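cron nightly-structures :: item 1 of 1
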Amino acid sequence: MLCVKDLSLQEIEAFVKDLGFEPFRAKQIFYGIYANRVENFESITTLPRELKNILSEKFYISSINSAKYEKATDCTIKFLFSLRNGSAVESVFIPWDFGLKERRTLCVSSQVGCALGCAFCATGKLGLERNLSAGEIIDQIFECEKITGERLTNIVFMGMGEPLQNFQNLVKALEILTNDFVKLFSRRNITVSTAGIVPKIYDLAKIEKPVKLAVSLHSVFDDVRQKLMPVARKWSLKEVREAVVEYYRITRIPITYEYILFEGLNDGEEDARRLAKFAKAVPSKVNLIPFHRIDFMPLDDFARSLKPASKEQILKFKSLLNSLGVRAFIRSSSGYEINGACGQLAFANLENKNEWLKSFVKLQGNSFQKIE
């Protein structure tokens, strides 16, 4: 059986036409799944009995078997989703009240693990198990909304994995999430973050409904960036910058740069000046991110040597960027106490992911259990 959420509206239409049903049945299926959030095909009352039976034989609707979650004192929630094939991924719900505008963001995963091995990221220490399907990406969103009872306003692809290394499934998920028929999300409320997979940045700019792009930079010196991010050995800062300029030229969407500040490594005045020059190539902003510990994972000597810049140094760095004409912000450490902050997603609060998966009771449908 296949997950029906792995199919686009056009693919569902082709499927029903091949069966001899009218093409409009595809929209009834699509609307039932995404607007009405049905959990079985029987609940789509507009469909004929024969089509319901065929759909029930060939497809399932949810790719998630079960979920555990932890809630931090700042109301951030980290989810651990068990998938139908036995894998697991984490996602993080981040509610934020700006006073005039309330935002409810889900940080979604695109892969089980990650192949990039960035020195500061726990997910990379897991290695890559596999890509997530479009349905597995979308189901993180649906299950979060079901558990919290909140409608999400923003989606950020900043969870486990490198989204642009799962390009086909990422694009299909974006296509479904921004589909005009069901109107789940505006493309301007979706951000895809990348460590700098240069060819795919060009490709992402050309999709029908381009979204916001965030680039994990973390240094404006190639040698330092290569130590922090092995992927930088393949694509230089010059190549990343050229791709970003082209992304903006095609989409006209300002770029976000993500920059973790490490004590004595990338937090100096010259770093700030070079970052300002890099960022001002196109309209952009810089998110300054405190370094979050990942000592719950096995680390090499370089990773163990990384230390967070002080709060005073972060403020000084931000002030210098602002004075150089760059919009810079200090990102909060939402979820830090539950190992759900930036770079920490690696099943940290479970003694052993595989043992959890072996011992977790498989139930029919979805079951949700809070981690005490």
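cron nightly-structures :: done
The domain at 66-358 is CATH 3.20.20.70 (TIM Barrel).
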